[in-house]
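user: can you give me the structure for this one chain? tokens are fine.
assistant: on it. calling the predictor now.
[tool input]
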Amino acid sequence: MKKTVFIIVFLLLTSNGLFAQDYQSLKKECQTLWIERDKADSLNKAIENYSKFLTLTKDKEEKKFILCRLSHAYYILGDSMSESEKRKKAFLKGTQKANNALQMVENDPNANFFYVANHLCYLNETSFFRANLFLSEVYHRLDVIMKKDKYFLYGGPQRIKSRIIHFAPFYLRNRFTVGTLYSAEKMLKEAIQSEPDFALNRLFLADIYLDMNQKKLAKKELINVLRSPVNNDLEYAAENRIYKQRGKILLKKHFPDYAKTIQKESLF
């Protein structure tokens, strides 16, 4: 009987030790994969591992963090896809993960931001009318974020607001407080001032300038996109690598002659 009890206790102790080891190993692997989230294989593996990690942790803060990280990951995944159905599926999953985090902490900036980002993208793929109905909630959630951090995620609220203006039909830009391209330009300049090296702010500003037919300014911002740092010490290095590639595409599309002249430079 004593021998049986000893074996049971031994198994429980060793299994707990293995659990802790697996937990820490999985956590470390998630962090390593996240650094290279601009690569499709790493991103998909990170989603898989963070989903496993979510089932292992009992800590509320850690669960919320993982849910937000998964929402962020699904946003990147959806944004990288070209097929509408696949984009919708990824953005919907991202919305659900952020919503789960919001059930835990209603005013969490990360959860609110990626809920808005994913759900807006999902609605844009499904129904322009429904996307417009969602705008009042978008502005409310962005206000919640900005009360805690005006330039959250390197000017995230400004990027979303400017993008709403950019994609709004011309006849809506001056109505329903949507705003104009000039107000979108101002928002993005503020975002750039808050974090000059984050490439997406400049990429969106280049888009605005192309819409305004301000080609010299657009070219300037696209060149700045290509000069964005991609050092892995930066929290947004992976994003910069993604957006630099998009900057190259836009530069070649709108300024092919200029793109050829700098083809041999390190920018390309």
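assistant: here you go. The CA atoms of residues 48 and 241 lie 22 Å apart. The two ends are 73 Å apart (CA to CA).
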